[in-house]
Amino acid sequence: MLTLFTIPKPFVGVFDAIQRNAIASWTRLHPECEVILFGDEEGVARAAAELGVRQIPAVACNEHGTPRIDDVFAQARAVARHDRLCFVNTDILLLPEFVRAVARLQGPRYLMVGQRWDIEVKGLLDFTDAGWAEALRREVARNGVRQPPWAIDYFVIPRTGVAWDFPPFAVGRIRWDNWFLWRAGALRVPVIDATWAVLCVHQKHPRTYSSINKPPVAGQDNTRDSAEARKNLELAKDKYGDIRDATWLMTPNFALLPAITPRRLYRMVKRPLLRWLGLGRPGA
């Protein structure tokens, strides 16, 4: 089965309902799924208790008080009950087919990712309604906007078998997710694009991130325009990947096919050729 883990923002304002919706959807994926919330931001302990999930409050942070990705992944791999792990952002709704997709992953090395659909969700969803998932699908079909392949909100990996060796990236800032895709390629880990098998729903919200004891700066998107964002860019060293680098595609009926697409073939030829000519970006 599956352990899902995340690093929530404080449960205040719009993020209280958004994060409760997301976590509640994960707890309904399968009775055996485990959910872990990392960190001790405002409201995390209360939400964990009310939603019946696990909290691990102690997380290594950077000098700004923002949780570090490397520590959270290391802790999750050490304490998870299950052999499949999923880091997922705490504004993402997942539907029951997600566990069917995860069940297709075999072997000791893989990374499953997928594109998301953005919609507006107001307030708490009614998960006591047996038709909540179908209602969500209809809303996505009417008003959802699919986001580009460099916007990556979930990562499914085996608990052991791959040495990812994360730099000390700050969560919620740019580029660590793209570094993750680059790292998979560098290690020749099969990357599965599950976009067409999994409906990944992002609840739209203001693009700010509040780290521990540090409110967001008014008018500033500090996911990108901050010292922490610049530090993440420095740590990534221009090592960039996205979902277009997937080596496998998962179809709507959960079959796995080689990712032989024009874009994939172009990227397979372009990168080695540029490196051979000495024209490629460092780390590309």
**Uncertain residue ranges:** 209-221
CATH superfamily membership, which one?
A: Spore Coat Polysaccharide Biosynthesis Protein SpsA, Chain A
CATH class: Alpha Beta
Number of domains: 1
Determine the mean pLDDT.
Answer: 90
CATH third-tier fold name = Spore Coat Polysaccharide Biosynthesis Protein SpsA, Chain A
Number of strands: 13
Q: Give the CA-based shape.
A: globular
The topology string of helices and strands comes to EHEHEHEEHEEHEEHEEHEEH
What's the total helix number? 8
- Major sheet: 5 strands, mixed
Distance linking N and C termini:
34 Å
**Which structural category do the helix and sheet elements fall into?**
alpha/beta
Q: What helical percentage do the residues reach? A: 25-40%
Q: How do the strands of the widest beta sheet line up side by side? A: 3-2-1-4-9
Looking at the overall shape, the CATH architecture is: Alpha-Beta Complex
In angstroms, what is the radius of gyration?
Answer: 18 Å
Please, could you describe this protein's structure?
With 284 residues, the protein is α/β, with parallel strands linked by helices. The protein has one domain: Spore Coat Polysaccharide Biosynthesis Protein SpsA, Chain A. The protein has helices at residues 14-27, 44-51, 69-79, 97-103, 132-143, 176-186, 227-236, 262-277, and strands at 2-6, 34-38, 54-56, 84-88, 92-94, 111-113, 117-119, 145-146, 154-158, 191-193, 200-203, 248-250, 256-258. The strands form three sheets. It has a five-stranded mixed β-sheet, sandwiched between helices. It has a four-stranded mixed β-sheet with strand order 5-11-7-8. The longest helix is centred in the C-terminal third of the chain and has 16 residues, at 262-277. The protein is globular, with a radius of gyration of 18 Å. Residues 209-221 have low confidence and may be disordered.
